[in-house]
């Protein structure tokens, strides 16, 4: 009798759903051939250059850019939500020292739902308020947990300052350098949405069961954590640290490629050219590293890029230079993926609300490739 199950012999028809269009959406457009990224009709690079993360959040949530009075009212509403519930800070104190920041935000974001004043209200206005609370509170939660890990007490954000400023301030305990704040705000804009990436799809699948926004965002955080998706930015930093000096990059990368190891920060399901965000982030790192007087990580990243491009047809993605950008800001690598979650929360929640606007349960089929005619044999007989 056969004792083990045999592995599947053929691949599903559309592995990874690479060729499947799963929904209509007017939030984000990607041209993977030409390398273009558009939020609600506006080029994301133009928004990154001229706008602010708060304005882009308004655009993604409401579908248009605000007039001045609308934006001021929106910012006033945001300020009112800019604090963590005391119960959440108590929960943060209870995590074991070994819990990574990404594991902590997965659990703590889920817990935030219990203290949301709109808990149980599933209307559109309540969902928008929840989306805004999540976007304001996730950075505070990441900063508070990091301070607790370092043996420091969490500190309150300063009303009147934006999300980028207050994340850096509540993390580092001092007003951020304006150059760093500006670069961080730009990075938040460039990560805010990306169509049906894995974490957004996870959020939409959960939302499509008519589950709540906190459950949907928690699903998304779980998907973002993996190294094939958001977790890649931390892996890029680990690779930079492993390499240590630019002149060692070529040897280490060639060895990895020879061993068929995928290099984090390269490859993308949609882009068949350089990810349009890469150049803007590359230039931000170049100027920030030089202003901070340490360009070693930038130089290593450039070497990694040169060798991978010489050896493969695989282009860099958004994560490649993000690692040395955040490192030039003095941020620890284990916060890189949680930072991705700060900006993508805007995209996730926009998609969740869009899903609810025209909902149908998301439930694809599997191509069954196992047997169908087996008969039950008792455990005694099977064990003979
Ligand atoms: C924000 C984001 O989520 S961006 C993506 C972040 N993830 C990473 O940076 C992790 C490294 N990259 C990867 O693992 C992949 O490129 C993914 C997961 C992003 C995309 O995967 P897929 O769309 O399934 O592409 P797939 O894995 O089939 O790659 C296509 C080809 O490019 C090669 N390739 C893809 N990525 C890489 C890489 N990072 N390093 C080396 N080769 C690569 C593959 O080996 C494959 O080559 P082959 O056709 O000769 O077998
Ligand atoms: O779109 C994807 O597959 C990955 C992603 O989230 C991004 O590139 O920002």
From TrEMBL:
| Active site, UniProt feature | 268, 319
Which keywords appear in this protein's UniProt record, sorted alphabetically?
Transferase, Tricarboxylic acid cycle
> Key word Protease present in the record?
no
What are the GO BP annotations of this UniProt entry? Answer: carbohydrate metabolic process; tricarboxylic acid cycle
Q: Which GO terms describe its molecular function?
A: citrate synthase activity
Q: In which pathway is this protein known to take part?
A: Carbohydrate metabolism; tricarboxylic acid cycle; isocitrate from oxaloacetate: step 1/2
Provide the Gene Ontology terms for cellular component.
Answer: cytosol
Reactions that this protein is recorded to catalyse: oxaloacetate + acetyl-CoA + H2O = citrate + CoA + H(+)
Which sequence ranges form a coiled-coil region, renumbered to this chain?
Answer: none
Taxonomically, which superkingdom? Bacteria
State the family it belongs to.
Answer: Belongs to the citrate synthase family.
* Annotated protein name in UniProt: Citrate synthase
């Amino acid at each position: 009798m056969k004792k083990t199950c045999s592995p599947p012999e053929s691949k599903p028809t559309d592995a990874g759903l690479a060729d499947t269009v799963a929904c209509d959406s007017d939030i984000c457009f990607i041209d993977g051939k030409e390398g273009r990224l558009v939020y609600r009709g506006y080029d994301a690079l133009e928004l990154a250059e001229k706008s602010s993360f708060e304005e882009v959040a308004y655009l993604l949530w409401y579908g248009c850019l605000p007039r001045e009075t609308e934006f001021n009212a929106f910012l006033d509403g945001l300020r009112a939500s800019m604090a963590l519930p005391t119960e959440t800070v108590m929960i943060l104190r209870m995590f074991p020292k070994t819990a990574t920041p990404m594991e902590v935000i997965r659990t703590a974001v889920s817990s935030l739902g219990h203290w949301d004043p709109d808990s149980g209200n599933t209307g559109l206005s309540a969902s928008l308020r929840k989306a805004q609370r999540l976007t304001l509170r996730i950075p505070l939660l990441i900063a508070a947990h990091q301070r607790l890990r370092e043996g420091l007490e969490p500190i309150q954000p300063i009303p009147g300052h934006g999300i980028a400023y207050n994340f850096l301030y509540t993390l580092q305990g001092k007003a951020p350098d304006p150059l760093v704040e500006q670069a961080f705000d730009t990075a938040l804009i460039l990560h805010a949405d990306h169509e049906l990436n894995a974490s957004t799809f996870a959020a939409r699948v959960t939302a499509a069961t008519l589950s709540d926004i906190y459950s949907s965002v928690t699903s998304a955080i779980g998907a973002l954590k993996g190294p094939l998706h958001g977790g890649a930015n931390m892996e890029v930093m680990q690779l930079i640290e492993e390499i240590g000096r630019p002149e060692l990059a070529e040897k280490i990368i060639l060895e990895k490629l020879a061993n068929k190891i995928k290099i984090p920060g390269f490859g993308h399901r949609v882009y068949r050219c350089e990810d349009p965000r890469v150049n803007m982030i590359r230039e931000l790192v170049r100027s920030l590293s030089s202003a901070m007087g340490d360009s070693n990580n930038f130089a290593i990243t450039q070497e990694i890029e040169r060798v991978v491009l010489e050896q493969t047809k695989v282009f860099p993605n958004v994560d490649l230079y993000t690692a040395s950008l955040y490192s030039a800001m003095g941020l620890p690598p284990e916060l890189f993926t949680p930072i991705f979650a700060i900006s993508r929360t805007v995209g996730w929640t926009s998609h969740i609300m869009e899903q609810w606007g025209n909902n149908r349960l998301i439930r694809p089929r599997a191509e069954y490739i196992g047997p169908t005619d087996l008969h039950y044999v008792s455990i005694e007989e099977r064990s003979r």
